[in-house]
Amino acid sequence: MKTEVNTGRVVTRFGAELLVENTEDNPDIPHVRCTAKRKFDTIVCGDYITWHHNEHGNASVDDLLPRTNALTRPGYRGRPRTIAANIDQLVIVNSWLPETSWDLVDRYLIAANQLNAEAIIVMNKSDLAEAHATEADWQAMKNYEEIGYPVLQLNAHTGEGIEQLKQMMDDKTSIFSGRSGVGKSSIANRILPTSDIAVGIISDSGEGKHTTTTADLYRLENKGYLIDSPGVRDYALGDISTQELADGYIEFAQYQNNCRFHNCTHDHEPRCAVRTAVENNEISKERYLRYLDALHTLKENSNS
Ligand SMILES: Nc1nc2c(ncn2[C@@H]2O[C@H](COP(=O)(O)OP(=O)(O)OP(=O)(O)O)[C@@H](O)[C@H]2O)c(=O)[nH]1
Ligand SMILES: [Mg+2]
Ligand SMILES: [Zn+2]
């Protein structure tokens, strides 16, 4: 048999079997099922691989190609579990019900910074704003915009805001992340006209039911990719340094060189330029307080 090497991108995996998009030019088959040996257990949705047809009429994985980055989540016993790889953009999906945790949004923004990925903040279910939005919520959203993040209001049922989001996903691999029940799969269905991804219900209290259980990759018309991922209860930060944490608060950057101590954590240190900026209302106090909470959690975890 002639040795052949094909390239592909992992759509999803079930155990040792991968569904792979054939990324060869003009492929005769658009998707292949590949079996992966144990050493390829680390391959996830979004990975690029090489593969070949084997003598049994199946296909097998030859190699995992280098990644630009990978998104992880704390899994069993807090061990990091990789969710998806080669991500250009994190789409942080929120809704009015289930309500938004701005803490969680901050942590995703820190993760995006670590991944060297762009971030978009989406507020879905605009029809529920009137009943559930508070002044503090609108203020938080305005603040994210002021520090440079795009904030989009969406309604997956009416299609409001979908076109704008779609355009921002051109030529990129974007992953939809957020709590269960916020409408990630509903938005994905709007963006992908031919898809029919299962959508769940939410309980009266607003909790989602974890309808999506695996990260799956979809190709967009405009060469981009969308990864729909399972909802989270929470998103804990992995093993990052206090400097990496502060780097995730991008509005601190223009001040932190003026702190008296070069290793200032912007907490209790004297002559901290970040704290002064908070006192002068140049940095949002709410964001700063969330930063301090995250900093103290990080320090507690590193001491235990
Ligand atoms: N009112 C309203 N409901 C919406 C909107 N978008 C989605 N929903 C509903 O929200 C519920 C959850 O939607 P899903 O798309 O399954 O949410 P998900 O984020 O994918 O949830 P998981 O897969 O569990 O993480 C469904 O009942 C949707 O119909 C919206 O714009 N407005
Ligand atoms: Mg879903
Ligand atoms: Zn400082």
From TrEMBL:
Transmembrane segments: none annotated. GO terms for molecular function: GTP binding; GTPase activity; metal ion binding; rRNA binding. The keyword GTP-binding applies. SUPFAM superfamilies: P-loop containing nucleoside triphosphate hydrolases (SSF52540). It is found in: Cytoplasm. Keywords: Cytoplasm, GTP-binding, Hydrolase, Metal-binding, Nucleotide-binding, Ribosome biogenesis, RNA-binding, rRNA-binding, Zinc. InterPro entries: G_CP_dom, NA-bd_OB-fold, P-loop_NTPase, Ribosome_biogen_GTPase_RsgA, RsgA_GTPase_dom. Binds 1 zinc ion per subunit. Zn(2+) binds at residues 259, 264, 266, 272. One of several proteins that assist in the late maturation steps of the functional core of the 30S ribosomal subunit. Helps release RbfA from mature subunits. May play a role in the assembly of ribosomal proteins into the subunit. Circularly permuted GTPase that catalyzes slow GTP hydrolysis, GTPase activity is stimulated by the 30S ribosomal subunit. NCBIfam families: ribosome small subunit-dependent GTPase A. Monomer. Associates with 30S ribosomal subunit, binds 16S rRNA. This is Small ribosomal subunit biogenesis GTPase RsgA.
